[in-house]
Amino acid sequence: MKKIVLVVIVLGLLIAAAWLTPFMLKNPGLLQLEILGYQVQMTAITAAILILALLLVFWLLWGLAKAPKKLARKVTDYRQQKMFDNGLLALSEGHWQKAEKLLLKSANSSKNPQLSYMAAARAALAQQDLEGALAHLDAAEKTVNNPLTIDLTRCEIWIKAGHLQQARDLLETILSSYPNNPRAVRMMLQISEQQKDYQRIKNLLPKAHKLALVDKVQTETMRDQATRDGLIHAIDEQQLRSLWSELSRKQQKIYLYEFCQSGLRLGAYQAVTDEIERAQKYQFDNQLVAFWSQLPHNLNHRLKVAEKWHVQHPKNRPVLLCLGQLYMAKKYWAEAKEALQKALILQSDSQVNRLLAETFQQLDEPEMALQHYAEANKNNTALLPSEHA
C-alpha cells in the first residue's frame, strides 16, 4: 500500500512539473540568497533542483545510518528462522529433546513466538512431560491477543495425554464462540467416540460432514454405529426408551435386535414384548422368536402368541423351540415334548437335546433323558476344535 501511495505522489509531481515547466521557462524568476556575507543569485528552477538534490543526499545518508540496524535485524531473523526450521526438522525426526531446545531458543527473537512455543509443547509431550508442554502453551498465550490456536493445541495435548474431560470442557467453550471451527469439531468428535457419548457423535456428524471432516459414507457409517452402540450400552430403561423414541419407524426396524438385547438386559420386558409383536405382524423374523423365548415376563400371553405363530408357521424350527421352552416354563411336559421333538426332526443340536432331556426327566423317562443328554454332549464336543487342527 505504501508503494502505491509513493508511486501516485511521484506521478503527481512529474505531471505538475511537466505542466509548470513551460511557464517557468518563459519567466523563470530569480532567487537571491545572502549567506555569510556572500550573495548567491539563481533561477527558481535551479533552486528547486538543488533542494531536491539536498533531499536526495539526506535520504541516502539516513538510509546508510539505518543500514547496520536493518542488517543486524535480518541476521537475527535468519538465525531465528534457521533454529525454528531445524527444530521442526528434529521434531519430525523424533529428536524430541533437541527439538524442544531449538524451538524455545527460536521463540526468543521470533516475530511469531507462539508458533515456536506450540511446537515445543508437542516436543515436550513426546517426552511424557505434560507439565512442560502446558508451561510452553502458557508462555505462548502471553504473546497473543486471541488464544484460540493455543487453546486448540492445549486440547490436542490433553487428548494425547488422556485428559479427555479437561479437553472436552475447553472444547465446549471454544465451540460456543467458534461453532464451525474444523479442528475443534474434529477433536470433539474424537473425544465423544472415546467417551462413548453416542448422542453427541450423532449431533456432531452433520457439522463434521458440512466442514468436510467426514464424507457421506463415513457419516452414515458413524451414525449407524453410534445408534447401535447407544442402544447396546444404554444404562437404564429410561435412557433406552428415550433413544428408541428418537428413531423413525423405518430406523426402528433396522435397530430392533439391539433394542431387544438391551431391553432384556435392563428389564424393559413390556417394551420388548410390544415391539416384537408389532414387528412380527409385518415381517416374521426368527431372531425375534428367540428373543421372545428369553422374556421372563407375562408367560401366559407369550405362550398364546407363540401358539398363534405355530399355527401360522407350523414347520418353523425357532417357533417350535420357543413353544417347547414356554410349555416347559408352564410345566406342560407332554406339549413341550411334542414341540421339541418336531424341532429335533428339523435339526438336531445341543440345545434341543438338552431341553428334551430335561423334559423326559420330568416325565420320568430316565433312559430317554440320558440318551438326549448324551446327544447334547456329543454335539457340544463336535463343536470343539480338533487338537490337530
Describe the protein:
The structure is a single chain. The chain has 389 residues and is mostly helical. It has helices at 2-26, 44-93, 96-107, 113-126, 130-141, 148-161, 164-177, 182-194, 198-210, 216-232, 237-245, 249-254, 256-266, 269-282, 286-294, 299-312, 317-329, 333-346, 350-362, 366-383; strands at residues 30-35, 38-43. Among the domains are: 234-297; 310-382, Alpha Horseshoe (Serine Threonine Protein Phosphatase 5, Tetratricopeptide repeat), CATH 1.25.40. It has 20 helices and two strands. A two-stranded antiparallel sheet has the order 1-2. The radius of gyration is 42 Å and the shape is elongated. It starts with a helix and ends in a 6-residue tail after the last helix. Mean pLDDT is 88; it is low at 382-389.
Question: Can I get a quick summary?
Answer:
With 389 residues, the chain is mainly alpha-helical.
List key phrases describing it:
389 residues, mainly alpha, two-stranded antiparallel sheet, disordered C terminus
SSE layout:
Layout (H helix, E strand, L loop, with lengths): L1 H25 L3 E6 L2 E6 H50 L2 H12 L5 H14 L3 H12 L6 H14 L2 H14 L4 H13 L3 H13 L5 H17 L4 H9 L3 H6 L1 H11 L2 H14 L3 H9 L4 H14 L4 H13 L3 H14 L3 H13 L3 H18 L6
Antiparallel strand pairs: 1-2
Helix pairs in contact: 2-3, 2-4, 3-4, 4-5, 4-6, 5-6, 6-7, 6-8, 7-8, 8-9, 9-10, 10-13, 13-14, 13-15, 14-15, 15-17, 16-17, 17-18, 18-19, 19-20
